[in-house]
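Second attempt. The first submission of 4-hydroxy-3-methylbut-2-en-1-yl diphosphate synthase (flavodoxin) had a stray character pasted in from the spreadsheet, which I only caught after the job came back as garbage. Lesson logged: always re-copy from the clean sequence file. Corrected sequence (360 aa) follows.
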Amino acid sequence: CKTDATTNDKKPNQLTHRVMVGNVPLGGGAPVVVQSMLNAPANDVDANLAQIRELAAAGCEVVRMAIPRRDCLDAFQSVCEQSPLPVVADVHFDAQIAVEAARRGAAKLRINPGNIGGLAKTDAVLDAAGEAGIPIRIGVNAGSLDQDLAARRDLTLPQKLAASAAGYVEYCEGRGFHDLVVSAKAHDVMTTVRTYRQLSRDLPHIPLHIGITEAGTQFQGVIKSASGLGILLEEGIGDTMRISLTDDPVVEMRACWALLSALDLRRRGPEIISCPTCGRCQVNLIELAKQVESNLMSTTKPIKVAVMGCVVNGPGEARDADIGVACGAGVGVVFKHGEVQRKVEEHAIVDVLMEEIGKL
Ligand code: SF4
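This time the job returned cleanly.
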């Protein structure tokens, strides 16, 4: 069992087999890989490359691209050839597309054996991936469970999903293919958590791609994803993650990195420590904090910036941060590495904070 993180300091994901997605290590104790999926039209090379560059700048490490039809394979190949990030081919229904994608530069394949045409069709995909030296993610979900498994009343849905994935893994390994990653996502948070716990017990050697699927628009999607993935990551479950949002994929990146930072697993970009404000606050702190956040959007330095409303908690938090401001009546006292720098008028606070951050 690899899930008992409370009694075993060794995190479970250190125990999995490691695969390489292009030049990105996944599993075997590697840092949790952050990924997203392109949503530009599948045959528009320039639009996909532009989105990849935007995602890379936001901290994305692996991108996935859908190949919905065979006539999109040329575009997929061009994207792979020019992409700064490894590109995963996302294929449903047509095994021949997956075979071709492996030959045309995919860094990994994502298939669902439940809809790719049965195990016989999977064989050709395994052979193509083996020849290309790339891993395959097996992604199962409740909608495409084997009928026999779906009908069983002695198993819960998480147990069925995990059993389905385990069956495919056994088949692939039986054919000598071992570079596997597994996902079994659901839109329901606790179903997903229980499924991944089961997977982590049943397939301790397989790297897991975790996520809450169809999590919704930004607000709900981030909360559902953070609660589910937060539980799993804290238990050491999960080697690569996607936060799926009905939004710009760049927002997914911000959410992923904020979650990894909050869990102290990986850090990228600033953390803003700001108070909720109350009746003691005598500046427009909400606006100040939003401006600081917006100005730091493209910063990759993992710095802590405190933006605090008054003397109750302000000086303490501002001192503990790399840069901070504790506000009073229309003014702010700026701190840097615990030392007071200067007192500034409210209108100048953001500029002074940015100036000091620039000097770090
Ligand atoms: Fe209120 Fe001051 Fe606390 Fe902010 S720091 S919530 S203004 S008491």
